[in-house]
Specification:
Number of strands: 10
Radius of gyration: 19 Å
Bound molecules: flavin mononucleotide
Mean pLDDT: 97
CATH class of the largest domain: Alpha Beta
Largest sheet: 6 strands, mixed
CATH topology of the largest domain: Rossmann fold
Helix content: 25-40%
Strand content: 15-25%
Number of helices: 7
Structural class: alpha/beta
Distance between the termini: 25 Å
C-alpha cells in the first residue's frame, strides 16, 4: 500500500486547496484511503526547521507552492531542498495569480530531482492573486469549481500513469516550461504597505498566519517590513478587514494586474512520457 504526502507552502491557501483537489483524484484512482494521506504544511515558520524522514518507493509526494515573481518563494525552495527521496514519484504543482508562472515549475522540477524524487507530473493552476481584493480583483475566488474539477482529473490521470508504469526509473524526464538560468526572483524586505486601522481588535490572527513572523504583536500588530514577504495572508485572514493596503508600489502593482491580467488563464498539466 502506498502513502500519499502533501508538502506545501501556502500563505493564502490557494495552493493548499489545489493540492487537496489533486489528492482526491489521485487517492481514488489508486485506492488509497484517508489514513494513508498526510500533509506537511510548512507555511508556519516553526515547521520549516523540521527535517522530514526520507521518502522511499512506498511514498507518492505532492509538492506545491505559489509563484512569486516567476519563481518559487525563497522559503519554499529552501524547505524543498532539504527533502530526501529515493525512487519516490513526485507530483509538482505551482499556483499563480493569473499573470505568468515563468520559471517556477521548472525550478520545482529541478529541486525535486536533486532531492532524489522522480517527477512524474506537473501542473500550473491559478489562484486568487495575493495582492487582490474586492476593490481591485485579480483572479478572484480561484481555484473555482472548474479548477478543482481539473485538479481532481489531474490527480486521477497521474494515478492512471503510475498504475501503468512498472519501473519509474524507465520513464522519460518530465518536460515543463521555463528557462534556466532562472529569472531573478524576489528581493528581501518589503515596502511599508499595510496600514492597521482602528477596526483592529488585536485578536492576533494576522500574526498567527504570517509565514515570516513579520507581524509585531508588541507594536499594534504593525508589519515589520524587513521580514515581510508580501504574501498578504494577514490582510486576507483579518476577520475585521482592519489591515488595508496603502497607496504605493504594491497597490499600484495590484491595479496593473487588475488592468492587464483579467482574462482567465487555463490550467496547464504535464506528464512524463512512458518509454
Ligand atoms: C510576492 C508575490 C509575488 C507574486 N508573483 C506572481 C507572479 O509572478 N505571477 C503570478 O501570476 N502571480 C504571482 N503572485 C500571486 C500568487 O502566486 C497567487 O496569488 C497564489 O495563488 C498564492 O498562493 P497561496 O494562496 O498558496 O499563498 C505573487 C504573489 C506574491 C505575494
Amino acid at each position: 500500500m502506498k502513502k500519499i504526502t502533501l508538502v506545501y507552502f501556502s500563505p493564502t491557501k490557494t495552493t493548499e486547496t489545489v493540492l487537496r483537489g489533486i489528492t482526491q483524484g489521485l487517492a481514488r484512482s489508486l485506492g488509497i484511503s484517508g489514513s494513508e494521506i498526510t500533509a506537511v504544511n510548512f507555511t508556519p515558520p516553526n515547521i520549516r526547521s523540521t527535517v522530514l524522514a526520507p521518502f522511499d518507493d512506498n511514498d507518492i509526494v505532492l509538492l506545491g507552492a505559489p509563484v512569486y515573481a516567476g519563481r518559487l518563494p525563497a522559503d519554499a525552495a529552501d524547505f524543498f531542498k532539504k527533502l530526501t527521496a529515493s525512487g519516490t514519484p513526485a507530483i509538482l504543482t505551482v499556483v499563480y495569480g493569473n499573470r505568468e508562472y515563468e520559471d517556477a515549475l521548472l525550478e520545482l522540477k529541478n529541486v525535486a530531482s536533486a532531492c532524489g524524487f522522480i517527477p512524474v507530473a506537473g501542473a500550473a493552476f491559478i489562484g486568487e492573486h495575493s495582492f487582490a481584493s474586492t476593490d481591485i480583483p485579480v483572479a478572484m475566488n480561484r481555484p473555482d469549481e472548474n479548477d478543482l474539477k481539473q485538479a481532481e482529473d489531474f490527480g486521477n490521470n497521474t494515478g492512471t500513469l503510475l498504475k501503468k508504469t512498472n519501473d519509474l526509473k524507465k520513464i522519460a524526464a518530465l518536460e515543463v516550461p521555463g528557462n534556466f538560468p532562472y529569472r531573478e526572483g524576489m528581493g528581501t524586505g518589503a515596502p511599508d504597505f499595510i496600514e492597521v486601522t482602528a477596526a483592529c481588535t488585536e485578536c492576533g490572527i494576522c500574526a498567527a498566519v504570517c509565514p515570516s513572523n513579520a507581524v509585531d504583536a508588541d507594536n499594534g500588530f504593525a508589519t515589520i517590513a524587513a521580514d515581510c514577504i508580501l504574501c498578504c495572508a494577514c490582510i486576507k485572514a483579518c476577520p475585521e478587514q482592519a489591515r488595508l493596503m496603502t497607496d504605493g508600489p504594491i497597490k499600484d502593482k495590484a491595479i496593473w494586474l487588475n488592468e492587464t491580467c483579467s482574462t482567465p488563464k487555463p490550467v496547464q498539466v504535464f506528464f512524463a512520457a512512458q518509454s
